[in-house]
Specification:
The complex is a heterodimer. Chain A is mostly helical. Chain A is built from eight helices and no strands. The longest helix of chain A is centred in the C-terminal third of the chain and has 24 residues, at 117-140. In chain B, strands 1-2 form a two-stranded antiparallel sheet. Chain B is globular and about 45 Å long. Chain B starts with a strand and ends in a 7-residue tail after the last helix. The chains are: A mainly alpha, B mainly alpha.
Chain lengths: 147, 161
């Protein structure tokens, strides 16, 4: 995998702002839920670097292998994920797929029912932040570490 | 008070049909503004507006389209460039090569679900921008994508005029 551009070097203020955004989005959000959001968006956006990083992070947090593995098919195995996880995943998918459809009232209402408004704001923030990192990762193509 | 899309209001009173996200996640607004300011450095405002409008078209963000077409006109972008933007590839040299390279890259960065950022599109942009400019163009495309996601999700409505 070739490396294209080191964004941290050419646009350090942007990189720093992204790190601040990530920290803001992570507040008051269950880290396990956050990893599922990050992995699902990274799958949809085809970001290899992000998938590698967040799958390792999920393992580090002790999330069962099954949850990340089945994520592309989470709707088929609802017993594996809590209602909060499902609501957040549905919202993450619609927020990630804006080119094809809007964020539907149904999916929004499901998330609104499962989370407090503070939590919902943070779930939305997390979904858009990983989308931003995905775009940076796919475009600048950082070297994928070999484990 | 903030000035957003031609409205002067408070963050708590933005006309959203869903969540008052800047009330529930105040750090988000601050972080996004810092990101926007960082991304805007060393990018010509006209080019920045074309990037923002094209991404907002693809992501179907009404508020963002309303705001950035107004901003683009203020920066002197012609009506024709705005009108034809969704079909820029058909419009020959109406857009400069730098604009076309940035638009192709913006489209690829925005449509990640449908494909990668190809070597062809990346190389075209790398040929017309310095590395610093290219980093900033990518940052601009990433940042408007983030605003698009916020505004579509919270149901922020454009002001009526």
């Amino acid at each position: 995998m070739s490396h294209r551009l080191n964004l941290n070097r050419v646009s350090p203020e942007v990189y720093e702002a992204m790190v601040t955004l990530s920290a803001a989005a992570a507040k008051d959000l269950d880290p396990e839920l956050a990893e599922l959001i990050k992995i699902r968006a990274s799958q949809m956006n085809h970001c290899a670097f992000c998938l590698d990083m967040h799958s390792a992070d999920a393992r580090g947090r002790g999330i069962s292998e099954q949850k990340p593995t089945l994520l592309p098919a989470w709707e088929e195995v609802q017993a594996v994920y809590t209602e909060r996880e499902q609501a957040a995943l549905a919202l993450t998918e619609e927020m990630t797929d804006l080119t094809r459809h809007h964020v539907s009232d149904k999916v929004y209402a499901r998330a609104h029912a499962a989370f407090s408004e503070r939590e919902l704001g943070q779930v939305i923030a997390m979904a858009l932040t990983i989308n931003a990192w995905n775009r940076i990762g796919v475009t600048t193509r950082p070297q994928l570490p070999r484990h | 008070m903030v000035s957003v899309g031609g409205m002067t209001t408070t963050l708590d009173n933005l006309p959203t049909t869903r969540l008052k996200i800047y009330k529930t996640s105040p750090e988000l607004y601050e972080a996004m503004m810092a990101l926007s300011n960082a991304a805007a450095k060393d990018v010509e405002p006209e080019l920045g507006e074309l990037i923002k409008i094209r991404a907002s078209q693809i992501n179907h963000c009404a508020f963002c389209l309303d705001m950035h077409t107004r901003d683009a006109r203020k920066h002197g972008v012609s009506d024709q460039k705005l009108d034809v933007l969704a079909a820029w590839q058909e419009a020959g040299d109406l857009y400069t090569e730098r604009e076309r390279a940035a638009l192709a890259l913006t489209e690829a960065v925005t449509e990640l679900g449908n494909g990668h950022v190809s070597d062809e599109v990346y190389a075209r942009a790398a040929a017309v921008f310095t590395e610093r400019e290219l980093g900033q163009v990518i940052a601009m495309a990433v940042t408007i994508n983030a605003w698009n996601r916020i505004n579509v999700t919270i149901g922020l409505e454009p002001p009526r005029r």
